[in-house]
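Sequence design from tokenized structure. All designs in this work follow the same two-part layout: the structure record, then the generated sequence. An example of the structure record is given first.
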């Protein structure tokens, strides 16, 4: 307290001048319309800029909650897609109404779970992600993993609360895919050379190809839902010794920026695999 009084005593003249200046300015702005309007304009400009900066900072710190809300909303919408429901072939027409989803659960083929990426390895020959969701939350091995823009990879290992995802940029990864425009199917994999490109093989040379053609997951994949974007054609590589093209693709996913993913379970996969294995044993 003593220091405060000493400070006031020492700078009394200057402080008294500031007080008188403030009083004079208040009289000027209060009783003079022109100066009042000018002051309000400047004050509004300053206040607006301060609020803008504050809102930007507040918006930045709320991005995490916004992203989580968007992921949950996307999961709910994906579960309503018609392609998630598939019945055996009959002479009846299946009509999927999102209002009556509960009555169609017995026909549901794909289910979705959201996952947050907590680890990423993108500089090796067997790149993978770690997702903070495991067996305790419903994750199983060989679940498909997709992102907002396309295919990401496949679940290979699961613990109670975490799962590792083999990325498309792994030499061990393969997926059956098709050209969107023409329908020809081939196998997509990575040659381990450049992380900017993946390859699609076994495309007949009779197919007319165009740069920019979309490549989607095919109906023959037992893991991935059909029609998920894998990449786009960047170049057509001609091998004179074969009757097939090799396509160089630009991946649909930017693997260095993946933060949230969707883990997809094929609810009919086990039944399909059991039947195929039984048929193989029968034919041996």
């Amino acid at each position: 307290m003593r220091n405060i009084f000493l400070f006031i005593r020492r700078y009394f003249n200057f402080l008294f001048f500031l007080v008188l200046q403030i009083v004079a300015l208040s009289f000027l702005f209060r009783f003079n319309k022109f100066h009042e309007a000018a002051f309000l304009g400047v004050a509004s400009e300053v206040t607006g800029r301060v609020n803008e900066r504050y809102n930007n900072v507040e918006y930045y710190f709320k991005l995490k909650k916004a992203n989580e809300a968007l992921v949950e909303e996307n999961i709910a919408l994906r579960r309503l897609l018609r392609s998630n429901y598939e019945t055996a072939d009959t002479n009846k027409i299946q009509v999927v109404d999102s209002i009556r989803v509960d009555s169609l659960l017995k026909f549901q083929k794909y289910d979705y779970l959201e996952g947050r990426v907590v680890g990423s390895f993108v500089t090796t020959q067997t790149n993978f992600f770690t997702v903070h969701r495991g067996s305790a939350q419903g994750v199983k091995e060989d679940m498909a993993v997709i992102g907002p823009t396309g295919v990401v990879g496949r679940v290979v290992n699961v613990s109670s609360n975490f799962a590792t995802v083999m990325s498309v940029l792994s030499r061990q990864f393969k997926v059956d895919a098709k050209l969107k425009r023409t329908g020809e199917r081939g196998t997509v994999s990575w040659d381990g050379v450049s992380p900017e490109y993946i390859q699609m093989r076994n495309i007949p040379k009779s197919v007319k190809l165009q740069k920019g053609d979309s490549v989607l997951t095919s109906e023959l994949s037992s893991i991935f839902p059909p029609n998920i974007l894998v990449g786009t054609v960047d170049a057509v590589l001609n091998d004179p010794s074969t009757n097939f093209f090799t396509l160089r693709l630009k991946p649909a996913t930017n693997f260095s920026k993946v933060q949230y993913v969707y883990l997809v379970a094929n609810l009919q996969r086990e039944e399909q695999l059991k039947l195929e294995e039984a048929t193989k044993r029968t034919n041996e």
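The chain has two domains: 2-61, 113-283. We note this feature because it recurs in several other targets discussed in the main text.
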